Amino acid sequence: MPHLSVHVLESDLAGREEELIAKLTDAVAAVYGEWARSIAVVQLIGVPPNRWGIGGEPAKAPAPHVTFGIREEAFSRPDADEIVARLVSGVTDAIVDVFGERVREGVTVELVGQPAARTGVGGVVVTR
Question: Considering the entire predicted model, what is its pTM?
């Protein structure tokens, strides 16, 4: 299941939660298809400004950071480069739609491969 964890300044996030969840879910469905909409998980993590640092100092206006959990086998598909590019582009565009063009240059989307049978849901190992 696609799982997105988004770190963003709490002050930037406040009041935009529903819109961000919807746009990120739309971005996932645009790449995977509508079947993925119902299983896409989005976690929004608001960070106080004094708890986000860059270069050894508190960050002034950091852009959101997205960790996108994806099945590892997606990276070995023949169309893997296209899938990665579409996910990065779509997620970045969703973030920019919500927070504005000022964040585009700094938005980080990290795709993290999840090996099969290394996750559990409801106490059961997910094998596929």
Answer: 0.90
